[in-house]
Design goal:
Layout: H1 5-15, E1 20-26, E2 29-34, H2 39-48, E3 56-64, E4 78-86, E5 91-98, E6 106-108, H3 117-128, E7 131-133, E8 162-167, E9 172-177
Parallel strand pairs: 2-5, 6-7
Antiparallel strand pairs: 1-2, 3-4, 4-5, 8-9
């Protein structure tokens, strides 16, 4: 078993010189960026190559970079980050894949590579609106079927679009526009009426 991160970087650079957009080491982890058009090819190779054997995908998360670095981000908006583990070689790898379009983010499903990605992809679809082509059952997993929008997108309003309540007259749950007034919440210790108080 090896835990040498530098050798992992060198190995990835040697094996995939043209497939990787970038490779970097930050916070003790190696991160590679892969183009969406060849992501399945590269991820399958990361799983099957005897020198790598990333047999486990431990996490998959959607990302919205629209306000990243205080709005200075000028690249693509949506990405999916895969956390991979090679038990045989005792290595971890983070793989980031950006969707080509911001208006309609689409990536290939990795359920065929790691079956455990199923619910993770459904979560990214539900919360970020990222479409995974080839997914066997892509539907919402955390929000209601009638929910409008994707709540983890940076442009989604904090109070949402609609609220749900029980109507005793109709004896059922009804949806209506949000009636909550937006307000700035200031901690008590910061309010002006408390200045100078003992």
């Amino acid at each position: 078993m090896t835990t040498d991160k530098k050798s992992l970087r060198e190995l990835l650079t040697a094996l995939y010189p043209d497939q990787l957009v970038s490779i970097q080491e930050r916070l003790g982890e190696t991160t590679i960026v892969v183009k969406a058009s060849i992501m399945l090819e590269v991820l399958t190779a990361l799983r099957d190559n005897e020198q790598l054997l990333f047999s486990q995908m431990t996490d998959l998360a959607g990302m919205d970079y629209s306000d990243y670095k205080d709005g200075e981000w000028q690249d693509k908006r949506f990405a999916v980050v895969y956390q991979l583990l090679s038990v045989v070689h005792n290595r971890r790898l983070r793989v980031r894949v950006f969707a080509d379009e911001d208006d309609f983010p689409v990536l290939a499903s990795v359920v065929g590579v790691w079956p455990g990605a199923n619910w993770f992809e459904r979560e990214a679809f539900d919360l970020f609106g990222i479409i995974f082509t080839g997914h066997p059952d892509l539907r919402r997993i955390l929000t209601d079927y009638g929910f409008v929008g994707n709540p983890f997108r940076k442009d989604f309003p904090l109070s949402g679009h609609v609220e749900m309540r029980y109507d005793p007259e109709q004896q059922r749950v009804v949806y209506q526009p949000v009636t909550v007034e937006p307000r700035v919440v200031t901690p008590r210790i910061m309010r002006e009426e408390n200045y100078g108080c003992n």
